[in-house]
Amino acid sequence: MTRLFLIALLTIASVSVSCVPYKDTLYLQNKNTATDSTQIIVEKQKPYRVQINDILNIRIKAAKQETVQIFNPIGEGDLNASSEERAYFDGFTVDLHGNILMPKLGEINVLGFTTDEIKQIIENKLLETEYKAANDIFVTVKLTGLQYTVTGEVGSTGTKTIFKERVNIFEALANSGDIPDTGDKKDVLIIRQFPQGQKIFHLDLTDTNVMNSPYYYIQPNDMIYVKPLKQKSWGTGTNAIQNIGAIATVLSLITTTILLLDRI
Predict the structure, then answer these.
(1) 11-23: string of b/e by CB count within 10 Å (b at 16+)?
(2) How far apart are CA 53 and CA 92, in angstroms?
(3) CA distance 131 to 193
(4) φ, ψ for residue 112 (rounded to 5)?
(5) Cα–Cα distance between 229 and 221 in angstroms, integer?
(6) What pLDDT, in 10s, does the model give residues 133-190?
(7) Which residues pair with 188 in a beta bridge?
(8) pLDDT level of residue 216 (50, 70, 90 thresholds)
(9) In 10 A of CB 238, how many CB atoms?
(10) What are the pLDDT digits (tens) for 182-211?
(11) What residue stretch is flagged as signal peptide (predicted)?
């Protein structure tokens, strides 16, 4: 009887310790108040400033389109169906000096500028060389997709590209298969590139205040790392049923071994 009691106690203790707490599996919990908040979250995203190795998609249109054809890639009408490879070969890559090289206009320094600022720079250069009035030309400057890398405890690791202007951390993770219960949602790492090097930022995705973070929206070339929980290294399940099954298997193996030894 005592042996059965000890086994039951061991089972309960193991289940309670090795399970992932329910609150650790939930996103966007309101941890400051006991009731749901109706507060409007004000976004804190700053305009993205172009970095080395970024690829810019630049298109120039004019009343006489043949005069600007040299700036635009051949087969422009099929851009909606373009692949990442197409964006790479048709785009303008920012070199190690922060410049892009454009036909007729030569080298243009774009490092640290926003896409709106680069648009204005190109328009000014065109007005100096080709056109007399601003309403004769129309320039668009965009990043060729938002590329980032996800690694760690997620459904699908690797480098991903989303063709949107803005992508928040939840969209980025959803595009990578989301975080399983064995991933640490309380401390997701954002490794961001800066001219002077890399910096690491921490996000708690279980807290609604994450939407107030200046790192809630990811940037091109970000790396997202999700750490595994301790339960993953223990080799136990994420819930009570899985743990009971694992413990039952181990206990069955121990019992069988004891019985076989007793017969020897």
Answers:
(1) beebbeebbbeee
(2) 9
(3) 38
(4) 85, 0
(5) 26
(6) 666 789 999 998 899 999 999 999 999 999 888 899 999 999 999 999 899 999 999 9
(7) 203, 226
(8) very high
(9) 18
(10) 999 999 999 998 878 899 999 999 999 999
(11) 1-19
Say which range, 23-37, 115-129, 221-235, has the weakest mean pLDDT.
23-37
pTM of the predicted model, to two decimals? 0.72
CB 179 within 8 A of CB 226: yes
Helices and strands (H, E) in the chain, number of each type:
6, 10
Separation between Cα atoms, residue 215 and residue 156, nearest integer Å: 22
Q: Can you tell me the distance from the alpha carbon of 203 to that of 212, in angstroms, rounded to the nearest whole number?
A: 11
* Contact predicate 14/231, CB 8 Å: no
d(C-alpha 19, C-alpha 43), whole Å: 35
**What pLDDT was estimated at residue 121?**
96
